[in-house]
Amino acid sequence: MMRVQETIDADEREMAVQYLIAAMPDEHLLFIFHEAQSSPVWTTVRYLSLGLYVKDLLREGGFAWGRAALDREWDGLVRRAARRVYDAGLT
């Protein structure tokens, strides 16, 4: 049985952000960035679509985090990934 983590350190968060940037199309991340800028709760209200997608991607990427940790972290991680893609000008 795989051991799950409920606490995530800064290094793991950074690895997850980098993974999301590599795993998600730039266009999706840029869309998320622009929509999240227009509404602070945009990602939160998309928990059942975007949230599940991001959490599944993280699991597929080998991030063995527990349900509570994924629920707590996914929004900030995808926002951080989206911001990086935007800042890098990858369009």
Brief descriptors of the model:
globular; mainly alpha; 4 helices
Task: Characterise the protein shown here.
By secondary structure, the protein is mostly helical. It has one domain. The protein contains 4 helices and no strands. Helix 1 (10-23) crosses helix 4 (67-88) and helix 2 (26-38) packs across helix 4. The radius of gyration is 13 Å and the shape is globular. It starts with 9 loop residues before the first helix and ends with a helix.
Q: How do the strands and helices of this protein lay out in sequence?
A:
Blueprint: H1 10-23, H2 26-38, H3 47-60, H4 67-88
Helix pairs in contact: 1-4, 2-4
Alpha-carbon distance between the termini?
41 Å
What kind of sheet is the major sheet?
A: none
Helix fraction? 55-70%
Structural class: mainly alpha
Mean pLDDT reading: 89
